[in-house]
Amino acid sequence: MAETKYDRGSALSIFKSDRAEDLVALAIALGLAFLVVAFIGS
Question: Least buried of 22, 29, 32, 41, by fewest C-beta within 10 Å?
Protein backbone atom coordinates (compact mmCIF):
# COMPACT_ATOMS: atom_id res chain seq x y z
CA MET A 1 0.00 0.00 0.00
CA ALA A 2 1.48 3.34 -1.05
CA GLU A 3 1.75 5.96 1.63
CA THR A 4 -0.17 9.13 0.81
CA LYS A 5 1.55 12.44 1.55
CA TYR A 6 -0.94 14.99 2.79
CA ASP A 7 -0.53 18.74 2.43
CA ARG A 8 -1.12 20.29 5.84
CA GLY A 9 -1.35 23.87 4.60
CA SER A 10 -4.39 25.71 3.36
CA ALA A 11 -4.67 26.46 -0.34
CA LEU A 12 -5.45 30.07 0.63
CA SER A 13 -2.26 30.56 2.64
CA ILE A 14 -0.19 33.61 1.64
CA PHE A 15 2.76 32.50 3.77
CA LYS A 16 5.56 30.14 2.81
CA SER A 17 5.86 28.66 6.30
CA ASP A 18 3.32 27.51 8.85
CA ARG A 19 5.24 29.26 11.64
CA ALA A 20 4.89 32.69 10.01
CA GLU A 21 1.18 32.09 9.45
CA ASP A 22 0.73 31.02 13.08
CA LEU A 23 2.58 34.07 14.39
CA VAL A 24 0.51 36.47 12.28
CA ALA A 25 -2.71 34.74 13.37
CA LEU A 26 -1.61 35.01 17.01
CA ALA A 27 -0.81 38.71 16.62
CA ILE A 28 -4.20 39.38 15.03
CA ALA A 29 -5.99 37.44 17.77
CA LEU A 30 -4.14 39.35 20.49
CA GLY A 31 -4.91 42.65 18.76
CA LEU A 32 -8.61 41.83 18.54
CA ALA A 33 -8.67 40.72 22.17
CA PHE A 34 -7.03 44.00 23.19
CA LEU A 35 -9.58 46.03 21.21
CA VAL A 36 -12.46 44.12 22.77
CA VAL A 37 -11.10 44.73 26.26
CA ALA A 38 -10.40 48.39 25.50
CA PHE A 39 -13.88 49.13 24.13
CA ILE A 40 -16.05 46.85 26.25
CA GLY A 41 -13.99 46.95 29.43
CA SER A 42 -14.24 50.72 29.78
Answer: 41
CB 18 within 8 A of CB 8: yes
Q: What are the Cα distances from residue 10, in Å, to 7, 21, 23?
A: 8, 10, 15
Q: Which residues contact 21 (CB under 8 A, 6 or more apart)?
A: 13, 15
Q: What predicted TM-score, i.e. pTM, was given to this entire model? A: 0.60
Residue pLDDT, tens place only, 1-42? 566 665 665 566 677 788 888 999 999 999 999 999 999 976
> H/E element holding 35?
helix 18-40
What amino acid is encoded at 17 in this protein? S
